[in-house]
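Worked problem 6 (solution included).
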Amino acid sequence: MMKQKSLLLIPIFALCALTANFAQNADYRSTISATAGANVFQLFAKLEDPISDSLGSEVKLKATASYGLTYDYGVNNWFSIGLATSYNKMSLKSSSIDITKDDGSKYVGPIDFKLSRTTIAIRPLFHYGNKGRIDMYSGLRVGVSIWNAKVTADETLDPKDVNSTFRNAGATPNIQIIPFGLRGYITPNIGLGFEIGIGGPHYAALQLNYRM
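Solution. The predicted structure is:
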């Protein structure tokens, strides 16, 4: 009889533990994340030598990571909606470059080109395996990219004159697919994580998370 009671208690304890896990996640509906992600600009900057060779002049390329901040609110245990912003920039500098303008004329001379991108987006995320200190998710990032371009040269040179190589200033739609993300909490509130993305502002990012 005692053995039967012990066996009966096992599924009850298991059910209580599962309920506690879900209740714990329900207690942390807001998550703030600081991110640093790898982007296409950084890959382009690695082509410094081939670009210099093709142009016949030395070109210096620099690019930063995509630094971001996100806020996600858990509507329920499997779905959250959030806001996200990010910033990254790159620069191109050359003592002599040959550019064909839109009107067919050419500019030959030094150039210092700077391009930055700020993104603002909403993030619907679908969560799974979301128990205790582990949170896995997939979703989308939908918003706009705001581009800012500046050119310094020996004569007036508009950013659109180098539009064949770089994007012009202005706002463009920004859509990113997030196939997979993972957050692991080292304390009840503080966690580390990563996510991969298809589309800007990054294709892979590390996170520092705080949930409350």
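Discussion: The two ends are 46 Å apart (CA to CA).
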